Amino acid sequence: GYIRIELFDEDYDDDGDYDEETPGPTAEGGPLARCDYDPCVDMQVPCAELQRATSCLCPGVSGEDVIPEQPRLWEVARVSGSAARVHWCAPPSTVDGYRLTYGPLGSPANASTQRLPSRARLFTLEGLTPGTGYRVCAVAYNRAGDSRLAEEDPPGPESGFGPCATFATMSGSALTLHISTAAVLLLLLVVACALLGCFCARRRRGAAAGPPEPSIGLQNPTYEEDKAGRPRS
């Protein structure tokens, strides 16, 4: 009681070509390469400029009318008693610039850096208090607003997952110990260089003087006669 109707397309090809993937964008007959872009490199050229120059592929980026996603705080390094260098990575968003907010642990961030350029990925915080724990956050902004901060901090300053991290400045005693150790190592290096210089100078003087000449003395005739067994007169 059923009627089977089969429809065929004239352009239908039964060779299996329809299973092949659609090729991506190409340049001069070949696939486009990814742009040499690293979101964590300081003073990184924007990927859009690289794309205009080399016709490469850029990662997806949200528009300037969308609030930026969170930057990724990579590490806090070179921590001393009063300074620390902060390194972050750019988000996949249109960013006009960055700023860092920071403050002692247990209190809200009460300090902020000046607005940093969109290519910046490094900044050194100065004027910190020795022996104090701090929380620092990287904020990206554009005309739509500022990126949001993390509700909870990652487990350490080098996790590289969120926009915030914690670190502690060196105490006065630890700083003194580091300075003393560096001074002792420097003194030992100077002494070693001085000893090496003296040793090399002595070798050069010895080489310039040449081998020692044989000594020539007057012979004792009496001694020679006794040695030959002759009677003395």
UniProtKB/TrEMBL annotation:
UniProt xrefs under PROSITE patterns: FN3 (PS50853)
Listed Basic and acidic residues bias regions: 224-233
Question: Where are the membrane-spanning stretches?
Answer: 177-201
Q: Which domain of life is it from?
A: Eukaryota
Keyword Zinc-finger assigned: no
Q: Which InterPro entries has this protein been placed in?
A: FN3_dom, FN3_sf, Ig-like_fold
Domain called Fibronectin type-III: residue spans: 67-160
What keywords are annotated for this sequence in UniProt?
Membrane, Transmembrane, Transmembrane helix
Show the SMART domains listed in the entry.
FN3
User: Could you tell me where the Acidic residues compositional bias lies?
Assistant: 11-22
In this chain, the stretch annotated as Disordered covers 11-31, 207-233
Q: Which Pfam families match?
A: fn3
Which CDD domains did the record assign?
FN3 (cd00063)
Query: Can you name this protein?
Result: Fibronectin type-III domain-containing protein
Native source organism of the sequence? Scyliorhinus torazame (Cloudy catshark)
